[in-house]
Amino acid sequence: MRETTVSPKDRFLTVYGRKPVLEALDDPELRVDKVILADTARGPAAAEIQRAARAAGVPVQRASAHRVKVLAGNGKQDQGVLADVVAPRMRPLSAALADAPARVLLLDGITTPANVGMILRTATAAGLGGIVVPRRGVAALDPLVVKASAGVAFRAPVLRCATAAEAASMLVEAGYGLYALGAQGRPSLFEASLPERAAFVLGGETAGVSDEVAALVTGWLSIPMPGEVESLNVSAAAAVLCFELVRRGTTR
């Protein structure tokens, strides 16, 4: 059953740890919804965060240390504090489909935060209409992803859903051609004829495109590699794809 309510994870990016939270509070271009501070957090570091939050007009809530760890999703590095940063272009995939962006990326099983962050940065730079980042099976949108994106993750057109398989089904039902990047020997990305609306699947670092998503794929595309290299890193492949769409003038 598909979700009809908007999860907080479809509205905010959560950053945790003292330095990332202070950086978010000090950035005039970001809107922080709230800071949550562990009730065990005391001393100069906690006081500094509270001062920065007051200066930015951001409410500070207290919660148990366990609750902070659960909300951060990273018990080793949260340092007792997190902040929910408003991501103005992030929304559920179901809402985005009403606007029918012409070109969309779908991340399927990409678990390395650096790859997710670099893909968000590249796709945003290329002007794509959306990047589907499922809540399950893909690296969480945490400070590691934000850092890899050089902060672009806050402003990226992220589209949210539960799983890549759910997203693939929704895209196909909405009339998108669903294309996956695969090995050499398939039709070339540079020569393929694409429909008016197309979504492109980027598979995981190890397993590639999942079986559930592969079953819905319209076609497979390859990136020609005349050199003796079997494949590209997924973020590098995403860059080639995105800027081929830029070259065609069809990113949105």
From TrEMBL:
Residue ranges occupied by any RNA 2-O ribose methyltransferase substrate binding domain in the UniProt entry: 14-91
Keywords: Methyltransferase, Transferase
One GO molecular-function entry: methyltransferase activity
One Pfam family cited in the UniProt record for this chain: SpoU_sub_bind
Keyword Nucleotide-binding tagged: no
GO biological process: methylation
Gene3D superfamilies reported for this sequence: 3.30.1330.30, 3.40.1280.10
The keyword Glycosyltransferase is annotated on this UniProt entry: no
Classification via SMART domains: SpoU_sub_bind (SM00967)
Homology family: Belongs to the class IV-like SAM-binding methyltransferase superfamily. RNA methyltransferase TrmH family.
Record protein name field: RNA methyltransferase
Naturally occurring in which organism (per UniProt): Amycolatopsis thermalba
